Hints:
Elements: H1 6-77, H2 84-97, E1 101-107, E2 111-112, E3 116-128, H3 129-140, E4 146-155, H4 159-163, E5 167-179
Antiparallel strand pairs: 1-3, 2-3, 3-5, 4-5
Amino acid sequence: xxxxxxxxxxxxxxxxxxxxxxxxxxxxxxxxxxxxxxxxxxxxxxxxxxxxxxxxxxxxxxxxxxxxxxxxxxxxxxxxxxxxxxxxxxxxxxxxxxxxxxxxxxxxxxxxxxxxxxxxxxxxxxxxxxxxxxxxxxxxxxxxxxxxxxxxxxxxxxxxxxxxxxxxxxxxxxxxxxxxxxxxxx
Length: 186
């Protein structure tokens, strides 16, 4: 029988130790690594979903801000109270700007509709034809919703007609609106 050399014995022993270590340590670590990779993939998927939710939330917040601004504008256009003195002040400023004289201003009784209340105001103004037109356009462009109905234009007659050759008078009903359940002030 041949004698086994110690180097071969050491090599065989090393291979056995390595194989034993592989099957006991490294193989177990590979399974842990595989589990951690699967967990990582799951967390990565959850992160993507969460990021999508965050993005949608940011977009929703932007839309909410936009809608809130529009709501504030709408509340100014259709207030809960009529604010007749404030409306008269605005009309007076416009009449001064467009060189129109307000001759008559009388709030009439309100008309309740399904979702809003109409507050009619009988008015009579005088001025030049173009000035009245500009005044009407400015009234149309006011922040709050108003409507002009029954517009009647008349030329000046009598002694004043010669002095105010280019003046006419306009009578109409200005209708402003308030949201239902609002108050009439003034």
